[in-house]
Amino acid sequence: MKTLNNYTKGIIRENPVLVLVLGTCPTLATSTSVQNALGMGAAATVVLLFSNILISALRKVIPDKVRIPCYIVLIAGLVTAVQMIVKAYAPALNDSLGIYLPLIVVNCIILGRAEMFASKNGVVQSAADALGMGTGFTLTLFLMASVREVFGNGTFCGMAIPLLSENRISIMTMAPGGFFVFGLLIAAVNKFGKHKPRKSDFGCEGCPQAELCGKLSCEKGKEEAL
């Protein structure tokens, strides 16, 4: 059950794009077509999976003081390998993704999961977390790309759609259209998957304002939750 929970939480409850709001730049840039979205999602998921597995396996070996540089070097090596594979077997996809494929190295989703989860949990749980986050990221890209490509280009996966192909809403393929669809999806997740606060959500540990407020805010939060 724990492994299943670590997988499913990344799909909706802790979706990396719509809930944690990470990886916004590649999401907006590569969601203009379904093919680009699926390609970016697959590449990021592969890197996320292997980086989580390796970092989890090496978490007791990597010195704490240099863990972030080590993570970045490891992730960069994986991204380089993935990019070489894409160039060899899917050159058209490589050209479409452009600079955003190598920029997976600095994707906040990958580094964030390495720091927050893989470095603190076992290999199996880290792999489940990576697959869940990768699935959530890919589904978000797919949903955004479907809406933007259908209404912006009048196509789906490059195939023309009658009527829509002749009445395109070109702004959907531009930045304003991307932000519009992005906002709608975030609103939908907030509406139907609203997180309800629990008593355990309130605490002074790690709060930079704890000393200034005299821990009164935490007590007030607990009273409101009750």
What does this structure look like?
The chain has ten helices and two strands. It is mainly alpha-helical. It folds into two domains: about 1-195, no CATH class; about 195-225, no CATH class. It has a two-stranded antiparallel sheet. Strand 1 (about 155) and strand 2 form a beta hairpin. Helix 4 packs across helix 5 (about 90-95). The longest helix is centred in the middle third of the chain and has 30 residues, at about 125-150. The radius of gyration is 20 Å and the shape is globular. Mean pLDDT is about 85; it is low at about 195-200.
The succession of helices and strands, N to C, reads HHHHHHHEEHHH
Percent helix:
55-70%
Structural class: mainly alpha
Major sheet: arrangement of strands:
1-2
Task: Give me the count of strands.
Answer: 2
Distance between the termini: 29 Å
Radius of gyration: 20 Å
Q: What sort of overall outline do the alpha carbons produce when their principal axes are compared?
A: globular
What would the average pLDDT be, to the nearest integer? Answer: 85
Number of domains: 2
Largest beta sheet, briefly?
2 strands, antiparallel
What low-confidence regions span 5 or more consecutive residues with pLDDT below 50? 196-202
What does this entry show, briefly?
The protein has ten helices and two strands. The protein has helices at residues 2-8, 24-30, 34-57, 67-89, 91-97, 108-118, 123-152, 175-192, 210-213, 216-225, and strands at 155-156, 159-160. A hairpin with a 2-residue loop joins strand 1 and strand 2 (159-160).
